[in-house]
Design a protein that fits this description.
The complex is a heterotrimer of chains A (about 500), B (about 110) and C (about 500).
Chain A lengths: L2 H5 L3 H24 L7 H19 L7 E2 L3 E2 L2 H26 L9 H17 L3 H20 L4 H32 L4 H14 L1 H18 L8 H8 L2 H26 L4 H24 L4 H22 L8 H33 L15 H15 L5 H15 L3 H25 L18 H19 L2 H8 L5
Antiparallel strand pairs in A: 1-2
Helix pairs in contact in A: 2-3, 2-5, 3-4, 3-5, 4-5, 4-11, 4-14, 4-18, 5-6, 5-11, 6-7, 6-11, 7-9, 7-10, 8-11, 9-11, 9-12, 10-11, 10-13, 11-13, 11-14, 12-13, 12-17, 13-14, 13-16, 13-17, 14-15, 14-16, 14-18, 15-17, 15-18, 16-17, 16-18
Chain B lengths: L7 H21 L3 H25 L6 H31 L13
Helix pairs in contact in B: 1-2, 2-3
Chain C lengths: L1 H19 L21 H24 L8 E14 L2 E11 L3 H18 L7 H20 L3 H22 L4 H29 L10 H8 L6 H14 L8 H8 L2 H10 L3 H13 L1 H6 L1 H20 L4 H22 L2 H32 L10 H4 L1 H15 L5 H16 L1 H25 L7 H4 L6 H19 L1 H9 L11
Antiparallel strand pairs in C: 1-2
Helix pairs in contact in C: 1-2, 1-4, 2-3, 2-4, 3-4, 3-10, 3-15, 4-5, 5-6, 6-8, 6-9, 8-11, 9-10, 9-14, 10-15, 13-14, 13-19, 14-15, 14-18, 14-19, 15-17, 15-18, 15-21, 17-19, 17-21, 18-19, 18-21
The chains are: A mainly alpha (about 500), B mainly alpha (about 110), C mainly alpha (about 500).
């Protein structure tokens, strides 16, 4: 590539936020290394600043014409919207990570700040890249940083969770790569656009290998998405990690991986969507049913949220499964419904984990039954938690309801009604376990707190995060138009 | 210089066998060290695949080799993290047995 | 329009007000000095009373302004809400849209009337008033809005909102084991709304032209009048209705919820919430899929008759008033379902009369028996007897409710039952004959229960010393009885409004 064309490659547009986050990650790492230990909070605040700058940058460029640079990075609708989403989510998570650092019970090392940034950079690469090599590097950057983040508190559960996540995540990466290597072998290309043009021919020439590599890649990504039957790491990792890290795994990591899954599978297998995507539908159905059934028996809040995130991953897989029937005319429906549900689910998840971190730090709440220890005057906290749980369950007036309704409409429109029916049927099961904590919280024999809760410094940041998440959850539930209206102008691909 | 011509299918078969061994090892072995080694084995088989395709595939080019370089580097980082966690775990439990890393048995 | 909006929005605003006002703390209440009737949260119930009174007044204005014999939606208004994109340049525009016609106005009024009565007749234990008022107002808004909705998504959303509010009402208001009852309510009704949502989306999809999905009732019924709808859509709706209405064999949630619920919640459940399902069946099933309804007429009639008989027997064998009331309500709904199956104007009118009068009768039963419960702490027949001596007023109301329930002429139930059976004999005479037997059963079980409670031997001397209902307790009962009589003596104005909604059935040969 000549220098001239490099200058006109719109690099600022395609990799602006990504490079800002990556550079600030390196800077924060160096600063943290050189800084004396008493400046505990400086790295976090610097990281927050970096994320904020990147978010502003991404937001300014949101409505610009999609660009494509270096044959690797794009700034199409999916990339720019997901970039904004991921940066926003990371910002929220890091905000309540600040409070976790302050608490005495949790010996949280300072490295967290820049590991968050590295993981975020990986997630950004996953949503902007259209080359298998870059996608893989992004995926691994996210994964390796997450392994460390999970295990970082060096508590026993954390190490166990990190270990399990690492082993299964490694297997997932290997499966994904193995599938990708076959695609490369058949086409000699690693660029998604180029392969998409060849995909139809590919399917005619060697369908068996196409199916094989599809399944390998699906399983590989399935491990990262914690789809059934690759979900075993999820409860342990979520339980061991600190609340902000668990929230990160459930929201940022999942959003990025879903966007990548959508893009990679659609482009690589464009010529054979009818034949390969039914496997995704089967997996979605399995994940929805098994995830919900598994969640019924959980007694610990962390594990409940973890297993419910497995079920939610099943719901999120529905739009991707719908690609089997979609034509380019109806792809916007698939993109819209997936991204809308991703936004709603991620915000609700972060809110739930933020509440959980307050509960754990102040009242050492582990089990659902412990929620009855919550003193009477914390009615805003209880209301917020109830709001998030109802959002997960898909009750009206929360964003979850609109998200599920949109998924159902998409399924109906694309003639895969059974998936939509299944979605709503298992949602009814999910009422049971989402309402169990609510029931415990609102039992009548609540006592008044006499200052027994552990003396913890005020958690203003966490409270801000919770308030923001409640607001967004309700706003999207009452007036989803603000987001859907924006989506209708987006050129997704 | 003479080149020894190895047919592509044999190389792919080798990679497939290595991959399966690695998968089996990663999912069934009890020693965490062996598990990590198995992970490495799986990634190596992917590398063999990539390199073989880049030389003997339908469209031979250098992309595969570049890809494999990335894979090797990233895999090294992953395994390093893995050993760090195993080490920390070992300090805790004086054991590197996968069964000991399962306090959540139900 | 302004009055409908006002009637709808007052409970919602009041509910928000209740949630936003701070809860007063109970701390300065010294033990032993608690006043029995005054509570620190008393002002909350007054918010509910004022709000429902405003709605109640608006309802009268609506009745006066309603134009007769017009089958368009009156007082209609709508806001554009948002769009679901369905692909390139294809959108599904959804609106918040309200309007009333001859079918929805009576049910809407029933909801308003019972809501108004609930707030004046029932007061929950002191520390629960705030929560109770907040959820009750929300539930009333939701159910009123689901009757007044004229857009699919507005209906769906209101229906789900009733689910949420109902769940919390049962959970917080229960006597014991309320968790199981609340959960059962949620699961059954949740499943019901899943089926109904599916059916409604199926309707919209079936009526779609060129990628545009209609959502307003008027457009839907106009389009679907000329097109057939897949049978599966109707069946989904029907299953949803069976669940929602607590029809046998899917009924177990309803008696359980009624058993544990406080009086206000019980009135809400039996009087209003179990009417939404049949409303949906008439509105969507008969109104928009008349052809399918016609095809499944025998199925509908059979389910209706089975319910009528089964629930009547179950009510007969009930051991206490609550259970009897809930089964008698199911039994009446069975008759109404049978009336719907006739697909004739008279039948529909009968069903509508039955819906309204069953709501009134259940409320009257429940509130009267609540007055006894407060004094006796039990409603089991084995512990009651001879109350006509100590509580003549309460016994009188109970007797009147029983007469209303069994369909005495001059009560509104008589009009409903007569019309249902009458149109049944014209279409399905065999079924109608069995339905007559069912009515006989209802006379037996209600009079039997009355005999055990008010007459019969006095078991216990304490029963003799009970104080009768006070004025504050009895005037809501008098209002309910008045409405029950009014509809029975002068059914015509009501029937004229309602008939306008069923014009299209004539085209079907009804």
């Amino acid at each position: 590539m000549s220098l001239y064309s490099l200058l006109h490659a719109h690099l600022g547009l395609t990799m602006g936020p990504l490079s800002i986050v990556a550079i600030s990650a390196v800077l924060v790492m160096l600063i943290e290394l050189l800084l004396p230990t008493r400046f505990l909070q400086l790295p976090v605040w610097l990281s927050l600043l970096g994320l904020l700058v990147a978010l502003v940058d991404a937001f300014i460029h949101l409505s610009q014409v999609p660009q494509y640079s270096l044959h690797t990075l794009v700034s199409d609708g999916l990339a720019s919207i997901l970039t904004c989403l991921i940066l926003l989510l990371s910002l929220l998570l890091l905000l309540f990570h600040v409070d976790e650092l302050k608490s005495q019970t949790n010996q949280f090392p300072r490295e967290g700040a820049y590991l968050f940034l590295f993981a975020t950079a990986g997630a950004l690469a996953m949503v902007t890249a259209v080359d298998l090599v870059t996608l893989y590097v992004g995926l691994e950057l996210l994964s390796v940083s997450s392994y460390i983040l999970v295990a970082m508190t060096r508590k026993r559960l954390a190490l166990e969770g990190g270990m399990k996540y690492l082993v299964l995540g490694g297997v997932g990466s290997a499966l994904f790569l193995y599938g990708a290597s076959f695609i490369y072998g058949m086409t000699g290309q690693t660029n998604l656009y180029t392969i998409a043009r060849m995909s139809h021919q590919l399917w005619l020439l060697n369908p068996a290998i196409v199916v094989l590599s599809f399944l390998l890649m699906l399983c590989g990504l399935g491990v990262k998405l914690s789809l059934v039957p690759f979900h075993y790491w999820t409860p342990d990792a979520y339980e061991g990690a600190s609340a902000s890290v668990a929230g990160f795994l459930a929201s940022v990591s999942k959003s990025a991986t879903f966007a990548m899954t959508l893009r990679v599978l659609l482009y690589l297998f464009l010529g054979s969507t009818h034949d390969v995507f039914p496997y995704v539908a089967a997996m979605a159905a399995l994940t929805m049913v098994a995830g919900n059934l598994l969640a019924l028996g959980q007694n610990k809040l962390r594990r409940l949220l973890a297993v419910s995130s497995v079920a939610q991953a099943g719901y999120l897989l529905i739009p991707i499964a719908l690609l089997a029937q979609a034509t380019p005319n109806t792809w916007p429906l698939v993109y819209n419904s997936l991204v809308f549900y991703l936004v709603s689910y991620s915000i609700v998840t972060i809110g739930a984990f933020a509440v959980l971190s307050i509960l754990e730090q102040r009242y050492e709440v582990q089990e659902i039954a412990d929620l009855s220890r919550l003193p009477r005057q914390y009615r805003w906290l209880r209301a917020a938690f109830a709001c998030f749980l109802l959002g997960f369950a898909g009750m009206p007036l929360t964003s979850g309801f609109m998200g599920k309704l949109y998924l159902l409409i998409a399924a109906l429109r694309l003639h895969e009604l059974w998936l939509g029916v299944l979605l709503f049927a298992v949602s009814v099961i999910s009422f049971y376990y989402y309402l169990k904590p609510i029931r415990t919280m609102y039992q009548k024999q609540l006592f008044t707190d006499n200052g027994e809760g552990q003396a913890v410094s005020r958690q203003t940041a966490t409270q801000t995060v919770i308030a923001f998440c409640v607001l967004v959850t309700l706003l999207l539930g009452v007036w989803p138009g603000i987001l859907l209206q924006a989506f209708s102008h987006v050129q997704w691909y | 210089m003479t080149t020894v011509h190895i047919p592509l299918p044999s190389v792919l078969a080798l990679a497939a066998i290595l991959f399966c061994i690695g998968l089996y090892g990663a999912l069934s072995k009890r020693s965490l060290i062996i598990v990590l080694v198995s992970l490495e084995l799986m990634l190596s088989s992917v590398n063999i695949n990539l390199v073989a395709f880049s030389q003997l595939g339908a469209f031979p080019n250098l992309r595969g080799q570049v890809f494999s370089l990335f894979t090797i580097t990233v895999a090294a980082a992953e395994i390093a993290v893995g050993f760090a966690i195993v080490l920390a775990f070992f300090r805790f439990r004086k054991s590197a047995d996968a069964d000991d890393a399962n306090s959540q048995k139900r | 329009m302004a009055f409908l909006l006002l009637a709808l929005i007052t409970p919602l605003v009041a509910s928000l007000l209740v949630w936003l006002l701070p809860a007063s703390s109970p701390s300065n209440n010294v033990q032993g000095l608690k006043q029995p009737h005054r509570s620190h949260e008393d002002h909350f119930i007054w918010i509910g009373r004022v709000a429902m009174s405003i709605s109640f007044l608006c309802m009268f204005v609506l009745w006066i302004k309603m134009r007769l014999l017009s089958d368009v939606y009156q007082f209609a208004f709508s806001f554009r809400w948002f769009q679901f994109s369905l692909g390139f340049h294809q959108h599904w525009t959804l609106r918040i849209a309200y309007g009333l016609d001859g079918l929805s106005l009576p049910l809407f009024s029933l909801a308003v009337l019972l809501g108004w009565i609930i707030f004046f007749a029932v007061r929950p234990p002191g520390e629960q008033i705030r929560v109770y008022t907040g959820w009750m107002l929300l539930a009333l808004f939701a159910v009123m809005s689901s009757f007044a909705a004229i857009d699919l998504l507005t209906f769906i959303l209101s229906m789900e909102l009733t689910l949420l509010a109902g769940f919390f009402l049962i959970l917080r208001q229960g006597k014991e084991q309320h968790w199981d009852a609340a959960l059962q309510f949620l699961l059954y009704r949740g499943l019901a709304s899943v089926f109904i949502i599916l059916a409604l989306l199926g309707l919209a999809a079936a009526a779609s032209r060129g990628g545009l999905w209609p959502a307003s009732y008027a457009v839907l019924s106009a389009v679907l009048f000329h097109h057939s709808v897949p049978h599966i859509v109707f069946l989904a709706l029907f299953i949803g209705v069976l669940l929602e209405e607590a029809f046998v064999p899917l009924h177990s949630w309803f008696p359980n919820a009624m058993q544990d619920a406080g009086a206000g919640v019980a009135v809400l459940l039996a009087g209003i919430l179990t009417k939404t399902g049949l409303y949906a069946l008439i509105r969507f099933g008969v109104g928009m899929m008349p052809q399918d309804a016609n095809d499944y007429r025998l199925l509908i009639a059979t389910v209706g008759i089975i319910n009528l008989l089964y629930a009547a027997f179950a009510a007969w064998s009930a051991k206490d008033w609550r259970r009897l009331i809930s089964f008698s309500s199911i039994s009446h709904m069975g008759l109404a379902l049978f009336a719907v199956a006739t697909l004739r104007q008279t039948g529909m009118l009968g069903a509508l009369f039955l819906l309204v009068s069953s709501g009134l009768v259940s409320a009257l039963f429940l509130l009267t028996s609540e007055g006894m419960f407060k004094r006796l702490h039990s409603l089991e027949f084995s512990r009651l007897g001879g109350l006509s001596k100590s509580m003549p007023i309460a016994s009188g109301f109970l007797l009147f409710a029983a007469l209303g329930s069994l369909g005495l002429p001059l009560t509104s139930s008589f009009v409903g039952e007569f019309q249902s059976i009458f149109s049944g004999f014209a279409v399905l005479p065999g079924f109608a004959f069995v339905a007559l037997l069912g009515l006989l059963l209802s006379a037996i079980y209600s009079l039997n229960a009355i005999r055990k409670t008010t007459f019969g031997p006095v078991l216990d001397s304490t029963l003799m010393q009970l104080a009768d209902l006070r004025w504050l307790e009895s005037w809501p009962l008098a209002v309910l009885s008045l409405f029950l009589l009014l509809l029975g003596i002068l059914p015509n104005p009501f029937a004229q409004v309602a008939l306008s909604a069923f014009h299209h059935l004539r085209a079907l040969g009804g």
